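Name: Diaminopimelate epimerase
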Amino acid sequence: MQITFYKYQGAGNDFVLIDNRNNELKSLDKQTVATLCDRRFGIGGDGLMLLENEAGYDFKMVYYNADGNEGSMCGNGGRCIVAFAKHLGVITDTTKFLATDGTHHAKISAEGNWVSLQMIDVDTINRDGEAYVLNTGSPHYVKLTSDLDVKDVYNDGYAIRNNATYKANGINVNFVEPVRDEEGFFVRTFERGVENETYACGTGVTAVALAMAKHNEQFGSISTPIKVLGGNLNIRFNYDGEKFNNIFLEGPAELVFQGDISVDV
Ligand SMILES: N[C@@H](CCC[C@H](N)C(=O)O)C(=O)O
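Structure predicted for Diaminopimelate epimerase:
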């Protein structure tokens, strides 16, 4: 069967998007998703999303990681699917959609390339040694480090993601360093499901911003700029010393190209 796909990127985290409102794709098997996301044998992407109809919502986001498994929440994917929904005419400038972790509200700029996405509230941050472990829609490990620009993120991230604690369910591993002479942080992430470093991870930078507020005992209404390999993101939230709410992940979401490809379904 021939399908039309759209390739989006948000700060270099890239995705294949498909409009499945007519439910033409009844199911996508693991191998088909992995091949579509393959950078040599397919379109290429860190993940694949289906935009589907859902009663009571503007749309539903169905997210697969590049390895073909259905993933948990993807923050940059969420921002990209909002831009896609605007491109399709499903929404105008605000939206309420359903994802695997629940309801999300978002706003998109008039030009359609800047998305502010509300993330789930967070009330638990655990420790694993010096690292912080929390769930922002996907599970994240956050570790402060130095010399992040030359760090071996692939090997160090792989070792943590595959250690005895995390191997079975996996975890996304974020390394973070404060930016010198500027506000905010530089973050590099080894992503579960891609099983490699990506250029950005939205739920990851959200986890970093919350963990760093706890680490630095910063309370109230907070805005945290974060640099990643693929650009700049910003996280806004409230922290009362126990719970984090009104969490917004903000950044670019751009259509790169579109095309047709044949898939076995
Ligand atoms: N790139 C994503 C994270 C996607 C989910 C993740 N790989 C997982 O299933 O653990 C983001 O922007 O949040």
